[in-house]
Design a protein that fits this description.
With about 850 residues, this protein is an alpha+beta fold. It contains 14 helices and 39 strands.
Amino acid sequence: MSSLRRFASLQVRRFSANRREASRAALPRLTRRLSLESLDPRLVLSASPYGAMVQDTGEYLLGSSTVTVAFMESTGAASTEDWNSESIATVKAKIEEALLWWQDTLATKSSVHRLSFTTDYQYADNPVSTSVEPIAEKSNVYTTWVNHFLDHADANTSDGISADIRKFNDSQRQQYGTDWGFTIFVVNDENDLDGMFAEGGSFRRAFAFAGGRYMVVPASRPASTFAHELGHMFWARDEYAGGGSYTDQRGYYDAQNTNAYNNPTEGFVQQPSIMGSGTLLTTAYANHTSSQSSFEMLGWRDTDADGVFDVLDVSHTLVGSGQPVGDSFIFEAAASVNTLRNENSSGYQSDITINEIDVVEYRFDDGAWIVHSTPGAAQADIELSVVIPAGAQQISIQTRSVDAVSQQTVASSNVFVANVETKSLNATDGLGGIVWLDANGNDQWDVGESGVPDVELRLVDESAAPLDLQSVQDADPFADGVVLNGQFPGMQLAAVGTHVLNANVYSRGDDLASTGDRVFANFNTGSNSVVKTWGTDSRTLRVTFDVPQTQVAIDALADDTGDVARLEAYGATGNLLVRTTSQVMQEGDSFSLEVNRPSGDIAYVIARAHYNTEVLFDNLVVGPESTTMTDANGNFRFQALPVGDYRVQAVAGDGQQLGASDVQQRSLTASQAITDLMFGMDKPPWKNPFNSEDINNDGIVSPLDALVVINYLNENGVQELPVPSESESPPPYWDSSGDGWVTSLDALRVINFLNAQAAAEGESMEGALAASVPMISPSSAVPIANSEMDHLASQGSPLESVSDYLYHTQVMDLVLELWFAGESLDTNELLEDELELGEF
């Protein structure tokens, strides 16, 4: 994976059609009216927020929600209530009023955020039949008629009502392209004496199952009741006696229910709140307000008072590089949104954001920002090419998330700033730089000089030996009976969890292993056996380090479709520092989980499954890499390096020559990345920069180019080429391999090129070759000196041997035989074998 793509990878969410259009439109005038959308059955959109699982249907009250309204209609002897068009319209009006109340209330709390609701009334306009009369029964009978609804909606499985209704709500938000989804069940009570459920049940009037599930409301209840129950859909707690308590915590921030009736603080006075009851509720409803603690449970908390709630006040990551090409500036990058850690003690604790890379924009100097593109996704690859205005000196590039309704900026990336006349890159941490082809040999990057891909970079010590910063451990070397806890230097392994009696970690064979054929295993007290899977809390893998680390990675393996894994990093005091979660995996998938802390404070990590699944673990990697390769643009990055002094070495490959020193030194602090390492790769002076096989520089590659080299060898033998001078300079470009020598390899590269081209069908070259290639006299063969043979032996090329250089004979026949053979020389075959030559 390239350095631009080293982000925790999760399911990528795309804009729904309606939201995309909203995000690109001009700022609308807020009319405070609901916009209801009807369902198009042909429209299937994937709109789950970034990081959300199927069951995460209501984590915070921001963004867009699909509200499914279902009216239950009793049938048969039990029926005492009947819906009609008037009663249906009356309840729908209350629901719309309650939704509008939340929209208006948010507008009083934030100038940035807005709410939108898409309401599906198909099950209200056509009530769903049930064999019971809900209002005449105890409230607990909901288990009967809610299942009738699930049957009607073809959403009933063996997973239980809560799981099934969330899966239904998820399908609804997918269908409508919203962030969240919940269901409102309304029971008819027009003929009921008290408008309440029968005594003896858990509830007498409205009730709800929190966190994106559903509410149940008698039809006669006011709009404020629907508003109150909607608060539960996004984790708010009741604040009245018999409901919630002061000690309760819930919501994305796990906020405490401090406005509860039993707050013990001296002098406490309960504030008006939509989550209260009686006068406190009606006062709050009339004034579009609620308690601060209830707002925080909903996700409405703005710690830094910048107008953006904390859950979405998370910067993007933008990592890329840019350079001038001709009259334009070219920028290539990867952008990603990021998430705030979900602390909800009642949910799945999936880290979720509704932010997207809505806008990619740029500006020159202090000019106005110009929108380049609108990806509308949680992650985006960016390719920007813009003409540089006359006189411009600097370009700035950034990404932004915008609220779909208010069009205000919610989050943005770091700003990439570059001089329009230089090649530059950025990084999130560590060291970075560029290897480029120094075409003019002046040891400075100049416009038009390109990066060199696939060059190795190393972190080395003063003796040029590579630094050993990384430890790779797995279960492969160990038999079943070996306890692995203390087997790896610098760390201790342990199994921890509710189903673990001993902390032993074992090795067990498994075909899913990502390295070798074994994975880490544990003893499960539930099954009284050693098992290879690890759970969410029951059995987790803890790795504690002797010295705090900057980077830890482990492979998670799925033995079932739907598995999810998580890796958490903790500090010395047990505080959770950072965590990463895998994408939803298919059976047999392997996913590398990686946590980074450039500050070097990871005391231990815990690898576990997520979302009530089980996974396998293999291939534990501790510490950062000390080698890397340049990407297609010549860029390189070393990430997660501890603070310290570093020597970075560029390693020239075959046919490559570094200009200035191949080692550069930098001192790295924890404050920011260093990305100014520049390595110029000299252009081999005797290698054609446009086509290395065009020896005579006539613009085409033909057998004549091979003959030119062979003639040189016949006359001069193998030679190291001199530095070009006025008296001796290319063309011809003798050195097609770029190694600084003239050898038969340079001719063979031409022949291989020609044979590769000959694979295509075209007009025969027979006759044309004979006419265009001069004959070379066999008598011109020249023996090669022993000193030259020593050089060849030191090169160690498998393509050449001592006997290859004894004579160059019958060169015309040699070239033509290879040319018409129609196949290139295998680099593992000797020249004399190919030509079936013997001794002379």
